[in-house]
UniProtKB/TrEMBL annotation:
WD repeats lie at residues 76-118, 126-168, 170-211. GO terms for cellular component: actin cytoskeleton; endosome membrane; flotillin complex; lamellipodium; lateral plasma membrane. InterPro entries: Coronin (IPR015505), DUF1899 (IPR015048), WD40/YVTN_repeat-like_dom_sf (IPR015943), WD40_repeat_CS (IPR019775), WD40_repeat_dom_sf (IPR036322), WD40_rpt (IPR001680). The keyword Protease does not apply. This is Coronin. Belongs to the WD repeat coronin family. The gene is CORO1C. Residues 3-67 form the DUF1899 domain. PROSITE patterns: WD_REPEATS_1 (PS00678), WD_REPEATS_2 (PS50082), WD_REPEATS_REGION (PS50294). One of its GO terms (molecular function) is actin filament binding. It comes from Cavia porcellus (Guinea pig). SMART domains: DUF1899, DUF1900, WD40.
Length: 474
């Protein structure tokens, strides 16, 4: 019997690295031993965790700032320990969260045109973990809801708008949490843990809805993510250290819907999922390839499509949201691959002859508008993402500033580099006090500026004198 080739519009997807001048060069990518992606991307900025002496830092570059990045380029550097994970807010392209070895989560607001000075003051510091925080993940549909998971085996869900920890799941995991993933409407989370269990959790009821022991039998780290249809996709290792991928139905986790063995490499497979096309891209840390698969309703459910291969191994990987892609070039995914000293965009394209908008490749996708306010979600409401059409390309709108109201009014804009006073002031404190404080702040800022100006002019004077000395010596 003749074997019929499966019909799929994604069979010929191919990946291509951009030219050298479109890469971000001379970046010292973090060497910290942690299995996060080290890179986060949105339609405005690319953020990369970097090596930093005496604390933790990450770079935030406007997408167009390609080429060599100067060593003096400003960073986001408020953490006192290495940064382990970063995540852009899906509802505000200027807000990013970071988790660190210093046990804190910080939320930052990046000025509209990128950083001109290093940013040391976050909009809010979220303190509640007793050990390092390795995972941060924003809620997909509710504004200002952020999840963090630490090596204290606790998951905390924060209302960033008030700076409060509203849900603390600290007794569900007996061992280290490898990753956490929200489902499509943010009503459930799934986690992969060092105890080899995959759990599906309802965070508001604080109960485990489903769990699977030994989802993958190997000892190396697993990953679990939710798919749009509610199934869970996992990557892990077999007992013989072969890399595996599996598909599970949370309503019946006894047996996987599908289980595939891949190869014997030992890098953790980071899955990136596109709910619009049902494609999963697997990027192994330390691999030099990206494999991609299509998930369908027909057996074998997980269909291998192709592999993008290159020479250099990847230290981390950023994944652009759908609204940041070039629809005119039939681009269906863009990755930002981290090398040791640079970040290289890789573009995935479906070859099409026509220049017209391909509506079968670009169904309406999740837009930047939040479907719920934080309070509504914590009260029990659910909502699917608000979808937008990409037919005429995505034009980023104006983002509103992230405002944090910590019982007293706390409203800070880092563009003005004002310090965020994170101590809650008694409610009686009057407006006059805040006016005085503001005046004092302005004074301090002016003084700092004049000192910096003096230092700059002295630097110039020193270099001129050194040049004169060099001439005399010659």
């Amino acid at each position: 019997m003749r074997r019929v080739v499966r019909q799929s519009k994604f069979r010929h997807v191919f990946g291509q690295a951009v030219k050298n001048d479109q890469c971000y060069d001379d970046i010292r990518v973090s060497r910290v031993t942690w299995d996060s992606s080290f890179c986060a991307v949105n339609p405005r900025f690319v953020a990369i965790i970097i090596e930093a002496s005496g604390g933790g830092a990450f770079l935030v570059l406007p997408l167009h700032k390609t080429g060599r990045i100067d060593k003096s380029y400003p960073t986001v550097c408020g953490h006192t320990g290495p940064v382990l994970d970063i995540d852009w807010c899906p509802h505000n392209d200027q807000v990013i969260a970071s988790g660190s070895e210093d046990c804190t989560v910080m939320v930052w607001q990046i000025p509209e045109n990128g950083l001109t000075l290093s940013l040391t003051e976050p909009v809010v510091i979220l303190e509640g973990h007793s050990k390092r925080v390795g995972i941060v993940a924003w809620h997909p549909t509710a504004r200002n809801v952020l999840l963090s998971a630490g090596c204290d085996n606790a998951i905390i869900i924060w209302n960033v708008g008030t700076g409060e920890a509203l849900i603390n799941l600290d007794d569900m995991h007996s061992d280290m949490i490898y990753n956490v993933s929200w489902n499509r409407n943010g009503s459930l989370i799934c986690t992969a843990s060092k105890d080899k269990k995959v759990r599906v959790i309802d965070p508001r009821k604080q109960e485990i809805v489903a769990e699977k022991e030994k989802a993958h039998e190997g000892a190396r780290p697993m990953r679990a993510i939710f798919l749009a249809d509610g199934n869970v996709f996992t990557t892990g290792f077999s007992r013989m250290s072969e890399r595996q991928l599996a598909l599970w139905n949370p309503k019946n986790m006894q047996e996987p819907i599908a289980l595939h063995e891949m190869d014997t490499s030992n890098g953790v497979l980071l899955p990136f999922y596109d709910p619009d096309t049902s494609i999963i891209y697997l990027c192994g840390k330390g691999d030099s390839s990206i494999r991609y698969f299509e998930i369908t309703d027909e057996s074998p459910y997980v269909h291998y499509l192709n592999t993008f291969s290159s020479k250099e191994p990847q230290r981390g990987m950023g994944y652009m949201p759908k609204r940041g892609l070039d629809v005119n070039k039939c681009e269906i995914a863009r990755f930002f691959k981290l090398h040791e000293r640079k970040c290289e965009p890789i573009i995935m394209t479906v070859p099409r002859k026509s220049d017209l908008f391909q509506d079968d490749l670009y169904p309406d996708t999740a837009g930047p508008e939040a479907a719920l306010e934080a309070e509504e979600w914590f009260e029990g409401k659910n909502a699917d993402p608000i979808l937008i059409s990409l037919k005429h390309g995505y034009i980023p709108g104006k983002n509103r500033d992230l405002k944090v109201v910590k019982k007293n009014i706390l409203d800070s804009k880092p563009a003005a580099n004002k310090k965020c006073d994170l101590i809650t002031v008694p409610k009686k404190s009057t407006d006059t006090a805040s006016v005085q404080n503001e005046a004092k702040l302005d004074e301090i800022l002016k003084e700092i500026k004049s000192i910096k100006d003096t230092i700059c002019s002295q630097d110039e004077r020193i270099s001129k004198l050194e040049q004169q000395m060099a001439k005399i010596a010659a």
